[in-house]
């Protein structure tokens, strides 16, 4: 019985890749030093999988930034603005310019990878793109592993999914069919396959996750065409088509199981439990089934007995020799290794499995199917599951009763948004096009050191409060000097926008090294929601009151919303996600009410991850949006009309859920806009009426590039053409936590300057004549 891993975390057990990347970007280390760190990480991952007994070990799942960007580099599909002339291998300078931008050109768009918190760089394609084999990374990494004595399965983003995840380049019409490029990119794929065969590869994995989406017949035909075209090239190779993240629709199932030249198909049988019925009703004879029974999206120990039962049932359908035990998706989306968690208590730790432990689970299941069951391993697993089911720390009956009661109301505020905005304006007296930021300010090394030393009891609480107070004073002073209208306190006391709140709520646990890659070098440490969630005491009121006392300008109280806390945590799987979300919503509601009582007139409840949790299948989306939107409304349904509720969203495609966003009934929404080429504005051009306040981002904070006032003015002009000026706000795309003050100060200066120029033009009725 064989075992397989779809993919593995690339950041390293202690974020080695993150630190190597940032050191390289800062000019402190060379490309060679970065490449050495990357090589060491790859070698250790392959060795770890081999030592764990995994048969089908993936390669080319490592990336300096993102696997889709790697594919763009492989295809030579570099947008012309980056100045790549072609005819050779794409270097790190061009690669990172596409990912992050540079001094002269912006980065490519970044958006969420399906319904995860991972982000990918969106390819920009058009009819004139000249594709060429411009990155030999897949072959190089296969050879690298082979030299170590590990024969791997090279992984490529499949050609059809690559095109479906792309967008038309700027200037290319909306009606342009990205799939029309399939015959232009397949020659490059054929070259890669030929090189891999020559290097000795016996398997190749094409990731085609778009197969789980709602695809029309034309898109499904593209899969048939692509793999028929590749059939001769892959002759002599075993070809695995890997799908993940959801059930595969029946028509897609019929398509993928009928593909010529395909040896094996991988399915997510954790999130795609209905796929089991399709397999039982017919799976092609002679093909391998890679059964994804170990969850790649969460950190709970696998129910080995249940997985074994599923696998044994599948044996009867596909045959014992054709069944391969696998993960449901890449382990990229889970933490790296539980061994590094020295502070989790023994009971809770026994309930968990990070990526390294999931390797052992996969292998244990495979060995059991081949007659080599590790009884001790299975017994320990059963004991851990029983402990979790019976532990009193999981249940909080008052919280459960309160959450059950919220379902009887829709939790709308009593007054409509236009009336509320009038009441708020009378109180706040803000100018036209008010300026603000999203919340966080740069987290300097000195600031991180203060938090670290306080947590380690090196400095006292008094010293900690003094240091944080000083940081807030400097952030407030800077914003006043920049003449920003609505201020934030900069969040210096916060390590992460979810972890900070989770640390103060019951039902949460925290890791020391449970890092997960979000994009590039950006890593997050998701809290673990293991039990019912409650708020024992106020979480942000002290700092918000302190910050408001330092200025006469409005100071936003900053909270993370319940849906985002849910979607950016490892969530308990023993009750519906909606139940957990309602519990979090009630906790945030208590905080909102305390902030209002403390005199905070503007409260921002971020829902950056609302879109991220949207199910991939349309038939399941309405139910999710119903409880997600209701959870947000619960948090603020009882505030006064004069209290202005903001929310923030970023780096997803929001146009298809704009009506649900309106239904959230926030007074003001700030939303990412600039990095996605102002895609958001198109929904308003198409006639959607939005009566609340809205701040489409005017510059991309995930790039070190500093936009000019003229560039920002041009963006504001586009906004004014589709939105009423009395509801429009001016703000960056997202928080400033990851940037440096040397970047933030000039960027915000230009932002405020652009707002003032636009106000002047509006006052003089000159806007329509241009700048």
UniProtKB/TrEMBL annotation:
E.C. no: 2.1.1.14
Domain (Cobalamin-independent methionine synthase MetE C-terminal/archaeal): residue spans on this chain: 433-756
Reactions catalysed according to its record: 5-methyltetrahydropteroyltri-L-glutamate + L-homocysteine = tetrahydropteroyltri-L-glutamate + L-methionine
Keyword list, A-Z: Amino-acid biosynthesis, Metal-binding, Methionine biosynthesis, Methyltransferase, Transferase, Zinc
Domain Cobalamin-independent methionine synthase MetE N-terminal: start-end pairs: 3-316
Pathway: Amino-acid biosynthesis; L-methionine biosynthesis via de novo pathway; L-methionine from L-homocysteine (MetE route): step 1/1
Coiled coil: none
A Pfam family assignment: Meth_synt_1
Entry keyword Zinc: yes
Superkingdom to which the source organism belongs: Eukaryota
Annotated InterPro entries: Cbl-indep_Met_Synth_N (IPR013215), Cobalamin-indep_Met_synthase (IPR006276), Met_Synth_C/arc (IPR002629), UROD/MetE-like_sf (IPR038071)
Cofactor(s), names only, from the UniProt record: Zn(2+)
Database matches in NCBIfam families: met_syn_B12ind, PRK05222.1
Function summary: Catalyzes the transfer of a methyl group from 5-methyltetrahydrofolate to homocysteine resulting in methionine formation.
HAMAP family cross-referenced by the UniProt entry: Meth_synth
Family per record: Belongs to the vitamin-B12 independent methionine synthase family.
Record's protein name: 5-methyltetrahydropteroyltriglutamate--homocysteine S-methyltransferase
